[in-house]
Amino acid sequence: MKASWITIVAMAFAVGWMAVVGVAAINNWPRIPLDLPRSDPAVRAAHNRAVTIHVLSNGLAASVPLIFIGIGLLLRSRRRD
Fold first, then answer.
1. Which residues have C-beta within 8 Å of that of residue 55, sequence separation ≥ 6?
2. How far is residue 22's CA from residue 57's CA, in Å, rounded to a whole number?
3. Which phi and psi (to 5°) does residue 30 adopt?
4. For residue 69, with 0-12 CB atoms within 10 Å meaning exposed, 13-18 middle and 19 or more buried, which class applies?
5. Which helix (H) or strand (E) holds 21?
6. Which residue from 11, 39, 52, 65 has the least number of CB within 10 angstroms?
7. Distance, CA of 66 to chain centre
8. For the segment 19-76, what is each residue's pLDDT rounded down to a tens digit?
9. Rounded to 5°, angle at Cα 19 from 21 and 67
10. Residue 76 CB coordination number (10 Å)
11. 22: closest CA among 49, 53, 46, 57?
12. 3-state SS class at 81
């Protein structure tokens, strides 16, 4: 199957989107404020929960364009058959 120009543009957009989301995720990484004790288990648990939510939400946001491109390519290949 030969890639059309729209597929190439969409893939370039998806890669750019993932890069932008990745940079934003790094810049907005959850941090523990200096006035809270790092050894407190409740603070550790809250920080770990914040990191987990941060990684999952940014991972989902980064993969949305790829999901739509995959669905579009799947529909286009089925329409050609």
1. 25
2. 11
3. -65, 135
4. middle
5. helix 5-27
6. 39
7. 10
8. 999 999 999 999 988 888 989 999 999 999 999 999 999 999 999 999 998 898 888 8
9. 75
10. 13
11. 57
12. coil
